[in-house]
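Researcher: I've got a protein sequence and the SMILES for fe (ii) ion. Could you write out the 3D structure of the bound complex as structure tokens? I'd like something to compare against our soaking experiments later this week.
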Amino acid sequence: MITWGISANSHDAALAVFTDDGLEFASHTERFSGVKNDAHLNKEIVNYARQWGEPDEVIWYERPFRKTLRQIRAGQGFNFRENNINRYLRQYDISAPIYYTDHHLAHAAAGFYTSPFREATVVCIDSIGEFESLTIWNGDENGLKRIYSQSYPHSVGLWYSALTQRVGLKPQEDEYILMGMAAYGDPLRLFNDVLHDFFHPLDDDSFKQIFFNTPTIKLKHNLHRGCTWWRPDLTTEQDMFDIAAATQAVYSYLLKYISNWARWKSPSGNLVLMGGCALNCSANGSIKSDWNDMYIMPNPGDAGSAIGCVLAHKKQHMPIPHMYTGYNIEGEYPVEEVLHELLTTGICGVASGRAEFGPRAFGNRSLLADPRGTDIKDRVNTIKRRQKFRPFAPAVLEEHASTYFDGYVSPFMQYTATCTDLGLPAIVHGDGTSRVQTVSANQSVGFRKLLERWYEETGCPILLNTSLNIKGKPMVNTVEDAVEFEQHYGVKVFT
Ligand SMILES: [Fe+2]
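Model: Sure. Here is the predicted complex with fe (ii) ion in place.
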């Protein structure tokens, strides 16, 4: 049985292929089309997926009719034709039977069924599914049971995106930049303004909260079209940093509130956090100690639902040790070539093996650099052409992480930890934290070997690791993309 899971026709589309052996392939469509955050499928990814055979069934990550109703309610018009998925898939010659899952069930299933837990409470926070924006589930051997649901227009994700736009960034795309800006602002200056201008009090005496004690979070405004009208007096660069800091602090406060309620309702004490908001690595750590254990799927947004919708359909546990599920560049990982270049010039790219599924590069499509010294951050920033305040992430040999970092760390850069070494400014953010990737042998054998060799040669178990992409384009996918990067920036890329 060949099953395709598809998340598309909205933003950041993805396709996953399952056979009887499990997950064979998952990738964002943007990697094949070259269009960043591509909302649609393309012939190239569909043809690549066909190497495992024609699909016997397709699982779609949400319910298009309900989505259409919400779009009508939101004043976005009658999109029945655009949301006709049969018609949509026929453009790509996909004619297998289609099954649909709830948007938030796909999020919850992507988390629960890939987690190491047999019992867990799942919290999903995003902008909007069909209608839902926050759901809480309890999962056990009987599957997933929704215990709380909150709907549009009340949405923490939509609010975070609106503030992303307010500071001059692109909503539904640049939220991670807002998170990075927060380290350079004063969270206290605007915390109360942001909280009270946008949200009703959390202890609101609404019927639902009094009688059912629910974690209802109500917005004062519908933020579907942003909040560029908010506080026109705030215009300077420092104002933008302060808005970002307050937004991040309010998000952490709301996350804690949701987490506390979910913890109270959780029989197992295990948390799975999902939805686009679960990419907020600065806030994720703030709730971890409240739970016995916590898991975040490495691609928790809508693209990850290409996997999630299939697992919701199959109701099948399938823990995933890594996220190297994309396009394959065949051949040995070029350990010695990369090592030599790093020792000589301090910086180079690598594109080898299967590409990462998710927004982050974990060593198979990475721009790597020597993290020591004061000039490397500027050198990498110059190549990446990005804002100077943005930090780079460290990849560290798992067994050395506690020597350099104090706090939560993960193989998928899902938390931030305080860096205790003063000699690595390139991988430390303005608030003294780092978004750490721990590297063990059961993930990428090649990248692990490279780090081991780097440690042998330098005594430093850390490399600066950032995604290998030309500004404004998705991550490098193929050898041709790697050559284009090399020619564009004059930085060697080994494949
Ligand atoms: Fe979502």
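Model: The longest helix spans residues 237-264. Residues 103, 107, 126, 129, 275-276, 302 surround fe (ii) ion (CB under 6 Å).
Researcher: Great, I'll pass this along to the crystallography team.
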